[in-house]
Each structure stands twice: as C-alpha cells, then as structure tokens.
Specification:
two-stranded antiparallel ribbon; alpha/beta; TIM Barrel; 17 helices; eight-stranded parallel barrel; single chain
C-alpha cells in the first residue's frame, strides 16, 4: 500500500463551525445565525456565535496544524464576511481576515484549500429574495466568487465551490433540520435549490477557468458527500436500489459535472416539476466544469428496492423508490449515529473510478464523532485512531487499484459547533474546552502525525 509522493495530508473545518466573531468587523448575518435563534432547532440550544473563536486565534490554530504536520488545510470562506448583504460592497475587514489566514498557512508550509460555500447564504438575500430558491442566486454567488478569486487566487491554488449541496438542499428545504429550515413545498423546493446550487457552481467555475486559472494556475472542483450502499439481497432489484442510493446522492452533482446531465435513474423516476431539467445552455456550462471531485465520506447503508421491502423497518426514499437501513450485519461495524464500515471507503472510491474515469479525487472529509465525556476520555480517543487507521488502509487499497486519490482531509481539526447537534458531539483531532477555549491535541492527532510523516507507511506496519 503506497500513497503518492505529493499526497495532500490535511484536515478540514468550516467557517461557522469554528470562527465565531459572528457580528464583528462588518460581517453580515447569514441563515445559520438566524436559524440557531429558533428554539428547539439545535440539540443543546447552542450556536456558533463564539464557536472555537478561530477568528481571534489564528496563530494558535495554525501552530496546532504545524505541530500535527498538516500539509494542507481545508477551510471555508464566509460569504457575508466578504460581502455583508450578499451583493454589493466588499467588507475589507473580512478580506483582511482571510488574507491573514492564507498567509499564515503559507508561512508555515501548509497549502490552503479554500471552500466558497459551506451553507452560509447571506440572510439579506434569504429574507428578501428566498436565497437559493431565486433564479438570480447563481449570479449572486458568481459575483461573490469573483471577489474571492481576485483577492485570494494569487495564493490559493485549490478551490471548492460548494460543500455538500445535496445535503444543504435536503436538510434545509425538505426536512427543515438545517438552515433555512423550510418545509413549505419540500420536494419541489429541495430540487429547485439543488438546481440553483449546481448552476452556481458552473457559473463560478466558468469564470475561474476563463479569467483566473490562466494566470493563477489553480484548480477548482465541487465537494459533495455520499454514503456507500450495499444491497439487502443479491437480487437484481436490490442491487439496482443500492446503485440508485449512491446516484441520488453523489451522482446528483457528479453526473452533470462529468456527463452533462443527471443520472438516468433520477431523470426516469422524477417528474420535471420536481427535478429541474437541464437545458442545453445549462449542460454546456455544467459539463466539464470540475477539475477534481471532492468526496466527503463517513458511513455505509443497506439499500433495497421499495417494491419488495416497503414496510419492513427501513427508511423509505420516495423519489428513488428505495428503502435504506442503517444497521449493517457486517463484522467490524461501529454504530455511532451512522454505521461506520471501513470497506465502504474502498468501495465508494472504486465506484467513483468506474463512474467518472480519469477524474482526480480528494477525500475532503472523513472522521468519527464521540459524545461529550471527561477530558481524559476525550483525549484518549483510541476509537478514532482505529477509525482513521482502518479507513486509510482502505484508501490506500483503492489507490493501489488505480483510483486517482490525491489527498485526505481529516474531519476535523478542532472540536466545534456540529450544526443541529450543537456541542453534544465531537469530531476533532484537537480537544476544545468550550469554557476556556483551551486546545489540547488528542491521541488521534499524534497518530495522524505519524501517518503524515511516513506518508502512510505506518499503516503497513
């Protein structure tokens, strides 16, 4: 098992989950600032107004990255920190903050990997125009991205336009568990918002490729997530359901970016008033718009054809005509909200190799959470060490079988605000005491240091 010589070993965060300073230095409000104020939406009633206070602790946090040995850091830029109302005037204080972060990373030999949207639609655009439901939202986003390319692109060589747009659409418009928390017309609004995020990516990528890439020499892609799906039985119907389970997740974005249209199963099963058809103009700008695919991967499910297994305890996914089950009857499964099964990592990577031949892949998130316990329990996270060991072994195996994986980003650098779960669960390589904000690297951070220093060779021992 051999990792490429210049493999990007990194860790990841997102702006609202770590930055804090939610209303400082001219930053505008976004949909999560408002969503967290709604009683009952966050498990512990918390929010990200302070989070890890990363905004005021850049030097300390970059020093932790260097101590761990990170080769790259994936972070996200907060749209209303750059343009407070979403459109219009640029907030120079916000630009200065990300300038400082990028320069600190480079000064410490860490490659910046910048995300342009990690779920922070400016509140002004949401309240006035409906955010991602508005036809002009892709253009708003393109104009914001132009500022980022112009101000940071001389130093940032890796750009990710969107983070998990399918999750933002489903959680924000279908189930109402994430911002903006809508459930007015769930299916139609989910896929309309998803379409606008797809088009927004394409407009931003076209701008980058035509104007900025020739002089800045970077790359741009899109990050989305999926589970892996194993069929419930070996029947053709259940194997087809497992395929649809992945295609309705990753393929929703991967297929248009690679082939120019949605997966055939989505087009055949969903009416045009739900799944917005891609016009010829859409296809022309969307196809080929990604230089790489980012993969956020955590867990595996069992999938079955709904016609055969409708009422037997699974979760019914209506438009995909499948049932999904989170309890895996496999050895080595760790049940922690999701079902963590390391071979799923290799299988999804091999699926991506077959589905999108020649497309480079960065594993932009992978990790495992733990509940809040004592400090001693938190920093002695042997279960996380085992998780990273076993998942990385499967990454290495996929590379040996020809998958072009170019980097791995551990989720996450710091214990942080975990969306609807608040601070009740922790993914970090570094423990954060949210009373004092003291940082303490965990056992998993030391293990990851060994992995990076050996370029993965420690996994062979």
């Amino acid at each position: 098992m051999t990792f490429p010589k210049h493999f990007l070993w990194g860790s990841a965060t997102s702006s609202y989950q770590v930055e804090g300073a939610w209303n400082e230095d001219g930053k505008g409000a976004h949909i999560w600032d408002a969503f967290c104020m709604i009683p009952g939406k966050i498990a512990d009633g918390s929010d990200g107004t302070i989070a890890c206070d990363h905004y005021h602790r850049l030097e300390e946090d970059v020093a932790i990255m260097k101590q761990i040995g990170l080769k790259a850091y994936r972070f996200s830029i907060c749209w209303p920190r750059i343009i407070p109302k979403g459109v219009g005037d640029v907030n120079e204080a916000g630009v200065k903050f990300y300038d400082r972060l990028i320069n600190l990373l480079l000064d410490n030999g860490i490659t910046p990997f910048a995300g342009l949207y990690h779920w922070e639609m400016p509140l002004a655009l949401e309240m006035t125009w409906g955010g991602w439901l508005h036809k002009d939202s892709p253009q708003w986003y393109r104009d914001y991205c132009a500022v980022c390319f112009d101000r940071f692109g001389d130093r940032v060589k890796y750009w990710a336009t969107m983070n998990e747009p399918h999750a933002a659409a489903h959680c924000g418009y279908r189930w109402g568990v994430h911002a903006p928390g809508r459930m007015a017309d769930p299916l139609r609004e989910t896929y309309l918002a998803g379409y606008h995020m797809l088009k927004a990516h394409a407009l931003a990528a076209d701008l980058y490729h035509s104007v900025y890439q020739p002089k800045q020499n970077g790359v741009i892609g899109l990050v989305t997530s999926t589970h892996w799906a194993e069929p419930k039985t070996d029947t053709g119907a259940d194997r087809g359901a497992a395929r649809r389970s992945v295609e309705f997740n990753y393929g929703w974005y991967g297929h248009p970016l690679y082939y120019g249209d949605y997966p055939e199963c989505m087009r055949s099963l969903m009416p045009a008033d739900i799944l917005v058809p891609l016009s010829a103009d859409d296809k022309a700008i969307i196809k080929g718009s990604a230089d790489f695919f980012g993969l956020n991967f955590y867990h595996t499910v069992i999938a079955a054809d709904a016609a055969q297994h409708l009422h037997d305890g699974g979760a019914f996914i209506d438009e995909a005509k499948i049932m999904e089950y989170n309890d895996l009857p496999f050895p080595g499964v760790v049940k922690n909200g999701w079902s963590f099964w390391p071979p799923g990592m290799e299988r999804i990577l091999l699926w991506m190799k077959d589905a999108y031949p020649g497309m480079p892949v960065y594993i932009t998130e992978n990790g495992i959470s733990g509940t809040v316990g004592s400090f001693e329990q938190a920093i002695s996270d042997d279960y996380r060490v085992k998780h990273y060991h076993d998942y990385l072994v499967n990454v290495g195996s996929a590379i040996d079988k020809g998958v072009d994986v170019r980097g791995f980003f551990a989720w996450t650098l710091l214990d942080n605000f975990e969306w609807g779960m608040g601070y009740t669960t922790r993914f970090g390589l570094t423990h954060v005491d949210f009373k004092t904000l003291k940082r303490t690297p965990k056992k998993s951070a030391r293990f990851y240091t060994d992995v990076i220093r050996s370029n993965g060779d420690v996994l062979n021992r």
